[in-house]
Amino acid sequence: MAERRLMMAFAHPDDEPHLAGSTIARYAAEGADVIVVIITRGEAGEIAPGVDATPENLGEVREAELRASMKVTGASLEMLEYRDSGMAGTPENEDPRAFVQAPESQVVAELVDLMRKHRPQVEVTFDENGGYGHPDHIFVSKTTTIAFKESGNSSFESPGGMEPWSPLKLYYMGFPRSRIKRFVEEYRKMKPDNEISEIDPETLGVPDEMFTTQLEVAQYVPVRREAAAQHRSQGSPFDMFPEAMHEDVFSIDHLILVDPPPAPGLSETDLFEGI
């Protein structure tokens, strides 16, 4: 088992490269054991033009894409068996198999099992708003946060019956609001008539001043892009931007240290700092 172990919990295939691909690649390249937990197979996602997928087999297609992406970044994968809940207010939210319909205690117990199995020192998930309010993102952030606290609790019994393990640090990962504003501005210039035009950037991402941790990942941006390219069934507005812009905007990944509570003015450059 690697000395440094990092676990990251996200909701759908393609969440991991777009948000954290460079960070995953960096720590895997540095020899850490990186475990990515994906909660659903993304069955409610849209299908990009020209992709050989159907609503009936999209989950299988996206899982295969996810596994290919993991090979690119060098991380290992754990998957839970929930269904994509879709965007807020859609019929998929009401599907009894949807992740947001699952009992919170059940999801927490499954995540605790994974933490006790892999014994990470560091746990990462979405910020509390899930980046842009996606119900699955919000729910995985909430349940991961609870599981982080319960994993080391000897009185908490998880299904696997493994020994308690206390991860040392919990982070929320997100996009700085300034970065999202830049993308929206550039996107509007390149494609004036688009679905993003009505979005208020002030409602997306995380205010820049909230971040405690900035990771230098410039050399891993090409890996991030290659990993994201494996998710062919899902279109991304990032795809139209030139390579130079990707290297510029994505050269730093941003996280918030949640637990232990950060000291005022904390500015970290490594998730394992202090461990």
Task: Describe the overall structure.
With 275 residues, this protein is of the alpha/beta class. 33% of the residues lie in helices and 16% in strands. It has seven helices and seven strands; from the N terminus they run βαβαβαβαβαβααβ. The protein has helices spanning 15-29, 58-73, 104-118, 135-150, 177-190, 221-229, 243-249, and strands spanning 5-10, 33-40, 76-82, 122-126, 169-173, 213-216, 252-259. The chain has a seven-stranded mixed β-sheet, with helices on both faces. β2 (33-40), α2 and β3 (76-82) form a beta-alpha-beta unit. α1 (15-29) packs across α6, α2 runs antiparallel to α6 and α3 crosses α4 (135-150). It is globular and about 55 Å long. The two termini are 17 Å apart.
Structure summary, number of beta strands? 7
Structural class: alpha/beta
- What helical percentage do the residues reach? 25-40%
Q: How widely separated are the two ends?
A: 17 Å
Q: Which word captures the global form?
A: globular
Give the strand content. Answer: 15-25%
- Poorly predicted runs of 5 or more residues: none
- Treating each run of at least 4 consecutive H or I residues as one helix, how many helices? 7
Enumerate the strands of the largest sheet in spatial order, edge to edge or round the barrel.
3-2-1-4-5-7-6
The largest pleated sheet is described as: 7 strands, mixed
Q: Give the rounded overall mean pLDDT.
A: 92
Q: What's the order of the H and E elements?
A: EHEHEHEHEHEHHE
Rg from Cα? 18 Å
